[in-house]
Amino acid sequence: MQPHPNVQAVQRALDDAGARNGSGEAGLVRLLPEAVHTAAAAAEALGVSVGAIANSLIFDADDAPLLVLTSGAHRVDTAGLAATLGVTHLRRASPEFVRRHTGQAIGGVAPVGHPAPLRTVVDTALAGYDEVWAAGGVPRAVFPTTYAELLRITAGTPAEVA
């Protein structure tokens, strides 16, 4: 069975970036037996701490997409992050906005594999884990990576987001 086109796009982006996991091996998207729509569900399925899940959240930042990769143990402080980024309005994006800018649906948004690069912020709390897990383009796809790799492959900006 051929992987979903979103999973293929994420894997291609990982390959093109030379992405690595926590062991230094090539980053590979893995399909879980069932969809995981929350950080807690992903952590349980993978047998890791919820903090090691890199949630991909899309925000509408003054009408432009902003990808925030946050530890699954955090909630984004939108007022604080808006002030840090110099954004007037920062709010959770609608499902349509997310799909338009990422090509992916909420619950499976990956850090990479979008139609165009997105402005990205990476939660500094993820640095506390040797390996973190991110979504792979659909709700049952994930891949292992590291904080440093997330910064590199997304051209992200480190920030405290909680």
What would your notes on this structure say?
By secondary structure, the protein is an alpha/beta fold. The protein contains 5 helices and 8 strands. Strands 1, 2, 3, 4, 5, 6, 7 and 8 form an 8-stranded mixed sheet that branches.
Keywords:
single chain; eight-stranded mixed β-sheet
Structural class: alpha/beta
CA-CA gap between termini: 40 Å
The total of beta strands comes to 8
Mean pLDDT: 95
The helix fraction, in percent, is: 25-40%
Q: What percentage of the residues does DSSP assign to strands (E)? A: 15-25%
Helix tally equals 5
Q: Major β-sheet, in short? A: 8 strands, mixed
From the alpha-carbon coordinates, what is the Rg to the nearest angstrom?
14 Å
Shape field: globular
Element pattern in H and E:
HEHEEHEHEEEHE
List unreliable stretches of 5+ residues: none
List the helices and strands and how they pair.
Elements: H1 5-17, E1 30-31, H2 39-46, E2 53-61, E3 64-71, H3 78-85, E4 90-92, H4 95-102, E5 119-123, E6 132-135, E7 141-145, H5 147-154, E8 157-159
Parallel strand pairs: 2-6, 3-5, 5-8
Antiparallel strand pairs: 1-7, 2-3, 2-4, 6-7
